[in-house]
Amino acid sequence: MISALTPLVRTRDSAGSLPPTTLPASAPWRSGKVPSVLLIQRALEEAWSCGFDPESTWIGAIDAAALLRFWGIEARLVDSDPRQSAQRCGPHPAILAWIWDYFEKRCVRASGCVACRIDAATEPASRGDTEVERATTMTGKGREPIPPLFLQYAGHSMTVIGAELNTALEEVQLVILDPNRRRHAGRLHLDLRSLWDLQAPQYQVLYVAESIFWDERTPIAYRQTLTSSRLA
């Protein structure tokens, strides 16, 4: 997710909403370079010492959000309702609908980040099915990328880079990069997840607000306070 945000915040006009001088020295947006794992760990410890997630526990999306907020990014959290896993309509329909809505709305506001109707010459992630509408982080010339999502559940996390709607089956599928699935030379495998793949008791999504950066007038105490919206 950091590797996707680094070039994005360096090119967006909104990056000017927070002067570089107010950012911590460890913020990758200052250099434009993606930090190493070691540098990320050190920056997270620095964020903890500055009051961002002071419990200092490695619990995935919360710590990722704390680090991004420390770096000036307006990161937010959304939680699924664990009670939905017992409903007949599926494991977590609300979280799937929220993710589709996230990409679809931002795609429209970005003046079409990717063609929503794929022509016959384009192979979608669903392996050749052309009856698919897609809203993803992928971009064309002059189009603006959409920040990916950090999808967390117990013991694992994945990066959601987009979503597909199979109009024939009326089914939404998430386009993800899963660190547990790699191809040759360590490259991540592009995969799909449907509603029926969301079998964990609860999911948490980390996303970046459209403004990208916090307003520089935002009190530091507000940035330090992490809350999550629960989907009904």
Automatic annotation (TrEMBL):
The keyword Hydrolase applies. GO terms for molecular function: hydrolase activity. InterPro entries: UFSP1/2_DUB_cat (IPR012462). Residues 1-26 are annotated as: Disordered. Gene3D superfamilies: 3.90.70.130. It comes from the Eukaryota. Residues 32-184 form the UFSP1/2/DUB catalytic domain. Pfam families: Peptidase_C78. Keywords: Hydrolase. This is UFSP1/2/DUB catalytic domain-containing protein. It comes from Cyanidiococcus yangmingshanensis.
